[in-house]
Each structure stands twice: as structure tokens, then as C-alpha cells.
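Quick start: what a row looks like.
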Amino acid sequence: MGSATLVIACIYFDLKRSIDQDFKKMQAVTAHAKGTGIVFAIESNARSTTWHEVLANKRGKKKEEFLISNQLHISNIESSYTTFQTCRGASNIDLTILNNTAIKYLQD
């Protein structure tokens, strides 16, 4: 069995901050980890049907475009369970995102 090096980064996308600032953080991690598998654990505060959310919003659309343009992939699977739940409601705003290298290591 081979070994793999992965960079794991947790990022909170604050609703009070421009989403572009958080994209810059993701790009900095990607630049630092060049050629290495990357796993992003993200509290996105964004909604999109791409990651099995019932609703979509502008932040979600912008995040979709960022992920596509940077060859990043959402690993969340469709489930009857949500990733976030409070007394005010539930949603799938927590995401696990992988780069191409990490997918090769983690596909099973």
C-alpha cells in the first residue's frame, strides 16, 4: 500500500466578509500545496443544488464557478441527513472539497 501526503484546510466563509476573500485563502492553500492532495473542510454559508441543497443563492453560484475554474470537486453525497441543523432550519452548507490529486488517493 502506498502513502500519500495531503494538506487539510478548514475554512469558515463568514457571511459578513466578501466571499472573494475566502477564495483568496483557498488559492493560497492551493499554491502552497502545489502537486499535493488537498482536502478543504468548509462551512460555506452558501447554498446550491450542486451540493444537494434545496435552495440556491448568489454565494452558492459564485462558489460553484470558483470550484469549476480551479478544478476543485465537492465530495458531499446526497443524503436524507443535512450537514447543518438548528432550531431555525437545516441545510447542506458544510462542504468537503478535494483537488484532483486528493481524489486519486481518496476515491475509494
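That is the whole record. Strands lie at 6-12, 37-43, 72-74, 84-86, 89-91, 94-99. The first strand starts at residue 6 and ends at 12.
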